[in-house]
Fold these 2 entries.
Entry 1:
Amino acid sequence: MPTTDYESSTSLDKQVVLNRVGVVSAEVHVELCRRSMSVLEIAQLKPGVVITFDSSITTSLKLKIGDRTIATGVPVRQDSQLGVAVMGFTD
């Protein structure tokens, strides 16, 4: 099916934008889970203490840029390094 002029220009415009800003870097971080703790609880931490969270061990990880979740994934091992296999993107 042939593309319309609009579709061609939109695709071209996206490529132009990517070519211009594609070299800009952004820090991506992975959020496993969060928990609030009192200052007393934090002060009582010592090696060997296990902190539990409400999240299940099978819960997807959140890939974030700033406060915005951009994707979800699962932890993987890549050789001797920790990685995240991207499972899907958020809207």
Note: Residues 5-21 form the longest helix (17 residues).
Entry 2:
Amino acid sequence: MEKKCSYAVYGAFFGALFPIGAIVLDVIVRGLPVTLSGAYTALETQPLHWIISSAPLFLGLFAAIAGTRQDTVLLTAFQAISVQLTVPRVPRVPR
């Protein structure tokens, strides 16, 4: 579970850059004041921002899925190494 949570957090933080960047760019392009009220106006009047604002949720979800798969790969590799270390080595016969 170690990678799943960290991947989800990183994915959500990365996804948060999209709505922040889109809203800041829209505020600047439309000539609105660069304040929270300007950002709210841009968010309220442009429905595309509603879709863009869902990016942290979906990127966090997909990153959590990737983290789960990474956890599985690491567990399988750890188990393979531990089995390899517990199996006695058979000496090679010289030819």
Note: Residues 58 and 70 are 18 Å apart (CA to CA).
